Amino acid sequence: MKSAEPPLDALLPRERILVAAHALFYREGIRATGIDRIIEQSSVSKVTFYRQYASKDALIRAYLDYRHGQWISWFESSLAQATSEGLPATEALVATLRAWFSSPDFRGCAFLNASAELGSSDPEILEVVRRHKQDMAAVLERLFAADTVSAGRRLALLIDGAIVHAQMGQAVDAVMENFQASVDAIVRQ
If we measure between CA atoms, which residue out of 125, 111, 30 comes closest to residue 75? Predict the structure, then answer.
């Protein structure tokens, strides 16, 4: 997923903090990223930070909301572009995920990562993750024009598995070959 972030100095303090947190949380992890690092990256004072976000937890929820909007928009746009170029739905999905998995900044699914890091200690995080996955499944339902929700949910589960395999460093071509075969089997049912 290519992220077209504006230059930090062009943003208001709240947005600078959020964009800096987005980059740091996704690249280095939520727990590994301290408030002082975010403050440094966003070029705001500690007072300004806490005026904008009362706590790190508030910033984490804002980060996930922000990431969700960006990711879903990219996902829908990439799928629409691929299908407008004549690719069938299955190949459009494979091409979209291949592009994401192959990008140099790929660090897996921000929502699966957040769930693994914080899910057991923060039920609100799990709710955000569930909503994200439901929205992803809805995009897939529209793409495949399925008449039941199950196809989208099965495909969403399959995508999560492919994300994890790509994140673990398995060859993208092998992951995508197995993914495509699995999608083909689900879509033909």
Answer: 111
- Determine contact, residues 60/125, Cβ cutoff 8 Å: yes
Task: Find, among 80, 82, 60, the residue nearest to 72 by Cα.
Answer: 80
Q: Which amino acid is at 17?
A: I
Interval 3-61: pLDDT, tens:
566 677 788 999 999 999 999 999 999 999 999 999 999 999 999 999 999 999 999 99
Report the C-alpha gap between 60 and 66 in whole angstroms: 10
- Can you tell me the distance from the alpha carbon of 67 to that of 1, in angstroms, rounded to the nearest whole number? 11
Among residues 93, 96, 177, which one has the least CA distance to residue 142? 93
**How far is C-alpha 130 from the chain's CA centre?**
12
